Amino acid sequence: MTAENILEGHIFLLDKPLDWTSFQAVNKMKYKLKSEFNLPKKFKIGHAGTLDPRATGLLIVCTGKFTKKIPEIQDAPKEYWTEIKIGVQTESYDTEKPEILHQDISNVSEEQIKEALQNFVGEIDQKPPVFSAIKIDGKRAYNLARAGEEVEMKSRKTTIFYLDNIEINLPFVSFTVGCSKGTYIRSLAHDIGQELGVGAYLTQLRRTKIGEYKIEDATDQFLENDFKFENA
């Protein structure tokens, strides 16, 4: 790998760690590439598909001419390994906010859970979480929500292609989700809880695929020297 290769264009497959924003990951990588390869202060670099800070997994970073591929990669189907906790909710639909609204789940059966999950396969209407990066009147929804302002999110169409590999160890349920772009797995977790009538929130999320790119080909050592490169 040379400076010329990076400036011309490469696709980096990263395994984003917990509590890092996608922006922080790209900035760290940009600094490292500049220092190691003596790159100019400004060069083309960007990521294809944001991961929440509380999510881990595949983050694709493009440089040079491959930044033109970002819209194409973002439009590709995604896959996630997901864990939810039923019988309780949070305002953020994930672990950012404390648990609220605890409910008894003793009457919830495994059959009910599996049936509820399958009810979400196909095209669905989904409201993004108020704690999301969507802009409302030019402001990020999460900033409005954290300031205590009322936030009204509009529903949108999204598609769940499959919900597989279901494992139930109450109050936790884990599964693999294949979905279209723009799907909020936090909202899916919340909606599954509403379907069951006991509430639920997202406890773990790991992105495993974006189109043809897989987490197995990514690195979790991007803060060190172990990058994986793609030329396609």
From TrEMBL:
Domain tRNA pseudouridylate synthase B C-terminal: 186-218
Presence of the UniProt keyword Isomerase in the record: yes
Superkingdom classification of source: Bacteria
Catalytic reactions on record: uridine(55) in tRNA = pseudouridine(55) in tRNA
GO MF assignments: tRNA pseudouridine(55) synthase activity
Metal-binding among keywords: no
EC number: 5.4.99.25
Keywords attached to this entry: Isomerase, tRNA processing
Catalytic center residues: 52
Boundaries of every Pseudouridine synthase II N-terminal domain copy: 43-185
Family, similarity comment: Belongs to the pseudouridine synthase TruB family. Type 1 subfamily.
Role, per record: Responsible for synthesis of pseudouridine from uracil-55 in the psi GC loop of transfer RNAs.
NCBIfam families: TruB
Listed PANTHER family: PSEUDOURIDYLATE SYNTHASE TRUB1 (PTHR13767:SF2), TRNA-PSEUDOURIDINE SYNTHASE (PTHR13767)
Protein name from the UniProt record: tRNA pseudouridine synthase B
Gene (name only): truB
